[in-house]
Amino acid sequence: MVKALAARLSVQLNAALVNDAAAVDIVDGHICAEHRMYGGLAFAQEKINSSLAIITLAPGVQEPCASDNSHQCPTETVPYVAPRHEILCRERRAKAASSVDLSKAKRVVGVGRGLAAQDDLKMVHELAAVLNAEVGCSRPIAEGENWMERERYIGVSGVLLKSDLYLTLGISGQIQHMIGGNGAKVIVAINKDKNAPIFNYADYGLVGDIYKVVPALISQLSR
């Protein structure tokens, strides 16, 4: 919705548009925005040359700013102009409130295809509770199996982590997922495939079956 609105505004205002910016800065008097491209495989830096620009930020890029009442912005009252094409509201539905915001979590336990059944999420949540962590997942778990809500999906088109710890369970480590997980300060990977790409990103790695490792971790950490 935000991207669609930004696109329409950029056309109406003849403004430059950069979506999902990972960083915004002023270089030599020009606004520059950095964003991902090629499915997250690379970063591009765009220099804004127009007098007006619209920039949307990727999730988790910036912490909420505290309000500053010292700034006095001039306001102007303008008459209402009816739209050329009216939008009719047929129905209103309240959006279900999300129970989690992974972009703000300090610790995250992520689960992937290594999980065999939805019921096995119980042990993942138990481990997360011991670690005082939130639970996230790779795209197949959220959108393929529908075992977890979309807000828990970590990846290039999902949540971008800024956590102190990201513990992955049975996640292979494809680039599309790691674009979302790479922002964590420490990555710990557990996977039974010693050749899984996740170990190239991990600070600490353990080759093992999550069905054996996770219960052992819960037992030790609960002492």
TrEMBL record:
Record's family? Belongs to the ETF alpha-subunit/FixB family.
GO BP of this protein = fatty acid beta-oxidation using acyl-CoA dehydrogenase
Q: Reply yes or no: does the keyword Repeat apply.
A: no
Q: What is this protein called?
A: Putative electron transfer flavoprotein subunit alpha
Task: List GO molecular-function terms, semicolon-separated.
Answer: electron transfer activity; flavin adenine dinucleotide binding
Q: Which terms are listed as keywords in the entry?
A: Electron transport, FAD, Flavoprotein, Transport
Origin: domain of life = Bacteria
Question: Where in this chain does the record put each Electron transfer flavoprotein alpha subunit C-terminal domain?
Answer: 101-180
Q: Which Pfam families match?
A: ETF, ETF_alpha
InterPro entries documented for this protein: DHS-like_NAD/FAD-binding_dom, ETF_a/b_N, ETF_a/FixB, ETF_asu_C, ETF_asu_C_CS, Rossmann-like_a/b/a_fold
Originating species: Escherichia coli
State if Transport is listed as a keyword. Answer: yes
Q: Where is the Electron transfer flavoprotein alpha/beta-subunit N-terminal domain?
A: 3-79
